[in-house]
Amino acid sequence: MMLEVAGRPAYAYTGGKPFDPQRPTVVFVHGAQHDHSVWILQTRYLAHHGCGVLAVDLPGHGRSAGPVRDTIESMAAWVLDLMTAAGAARAAIVGHSMGSLIALEAAGQAPDRVERVALCGCAFPMKVSDVLLNAARDDEPRAFDMIDLWSHSGINHRPGNPGPGFSVYNENLRLMQRQAPGVLFNDFSACNAYAGGLERAKALQCPALFVSGARDQMTPPKAARGLAQAMADARSVTLPACGHAMMAERPNLVLDALKGFLPAVSPGGPSA
Description:
Number of helices: 11
Number of strands: 8
CATH architecture: 3-Layer(aba) Sandwich
CATH superfamily: Alpha/Beta hydrolase fold, catalytic domain
Radius of gyration: 17 Å
Structural class: alpha/beta
Strand content: 15-25%
């Protein structure tokens, strides 16, 4: 659905059901150079099992108008504003990669509005290598190739096709190519500069879940341990044979981890 945030059009996917703010809300936040579509399986399931779902396109990504926000702090504030525009007073926030930092920061900015956070493919600090950062600035196609290679485990889909007519590599490449030039460098720069993660983790007042890929080369499981150890209530799930692009490589396992963490999920059949 389309909303207005800070006077600009903003898009949130609702999982195939009209958003109902009276239901427990789950907000999904994508990572760098992505959009809401990375969450299709998880959002559709939760929307049909008792939750109100908002899978956002961050400003300047997907269907949301720009300009892009250039810091994790401003992206988190925008997510909270989108919740307000949708009529959601409180929510659980699920974020992947850059989105995990946004979820953590949003919980710090508005602890009374964030009930729990699920941090998928998280790391802190989330530093981007100079080679990749420079390519994002000067040669986006080269950066896309590096991201595609490093984001996937390569175990279960060589040469890239887990089923007829489907390629996780090409799917991710086309998604990145759909974003406007300059978005990738903006997002990576925001991740690189974000310094508040540990303080936010120490002050976190809600439960947290870390979901990591055992073969993640971008944000390996050990890169999130400092955050988890700083939190009062954190648990971790490591997905076997899985890289950074966990929603593409292990969508059902990501969903299972979320179902075990979000108490609002109805255990039975689809909700009416």
